UniProtKB/TrEMBL annotation:
PROSITE patterns: HTH_TETR_1, HTH_TETR_2. Keywords: DNA-binding, Transcription, Transcription regulation. Residues 37-56 bind DNA. PANTHER family: HTH-TYPE TRANSCRIPTIONAL REGULATOR RUTR, TETR-FAMILY TRANSCRIPTIONAL REGULATOR. Residues 14-74 form the HTH tetR-type domain. This is TetR/AcrR family transcriptional regulator.
């Protein structure tokens, strides 16, 4: 089964298939990606390994499908009329960063992305790709409305919001909340997007 799909919306064929994904999420949260096995998932889902392999050829494909069923970021355009409103609506809700289950599963695969090429490629295309596209559209609309300065480097700014929130959650152990997301938007993202950067003072 090819891992290359245009969006993070795997085809669901029935309740049993979703039960297996739910079991995969539980095992991921308990032991992480590296220690997850098809045997462990089959046991947790009360299914046979043959059942799993008929639907997913590899562990990576099973984990990717599981990630894609979790609500962890926007996948459809959000237009509230302002950059702040769009960012809060997209990321400050239970379908955004304020989703502890999705965060737990997400953090369990982070280290594996650096070593598992199949997982990394699918993760970037199927899980991150749709979310990055929505984020880019939010900032592009804001630039068209004149809300942000025209010289802004969007490639540099766009990852800042998720990067800060995930760092505080995964590294510092601070659960993501709507209040945290709004603070990062108001105190870091919006000032960076709208404030003119002064030229550095030459040193003598």
């Amino acid at each position: 089964m090819s891992l290359r799909r245009p969006t993070c919306r795997p085809r669901v064929e029935g309740d049993r298939e979703q039960e297996i994904r739910d079991a995969t999420a539980r095992v991921l949260a308990e032991v992480g990606y590296d220690r997850l096995t098809m045997d462990a998932v089959a046991k947790a889902a009360q299914a046979s390994k043959a059942t799993l392999y008929r639907r997913w050829e590899t562990k990576a494909s099973l984990v990717l499908d599981t990630l894609c069923t979790l609500k962890a970021g926007p996948e459809t355009p959000i237009d509230t009329g302002s950059l702040r409103g769009d960012l809060v609506a997209a990321f400050g809700t239970p379908t955004g960063f304020v989703n502890t289950k999705a965060l737990t599963v997400f953090s369990s695969v982070l280290t594996a992305i650096a070593t598992d090429e199949e997982l990394a490629a699918g993760f970037r295309e199927r899980f991150l790709g749709p979310k990055l596209a929505v984020s880019r559209e939010i900032y592009a609309r804001a630039k068209e409305r004149g809300e942000i300065r025209p010289d802004l480097d969007l490639d540099l700014l766009e990852p800042a919001l998720p990067g800060i929130v995930l760092h505080r959650a995964i590294v510092l152990g601070e659960p993501p909340t709507r209040e945290l997301v709004v603070r990062v938007i108001d105190e870091i993202i919006l000032p960076a997007a709208t404030r003119r950067v002064e030229e550095p003072v030459p040193t003598t």
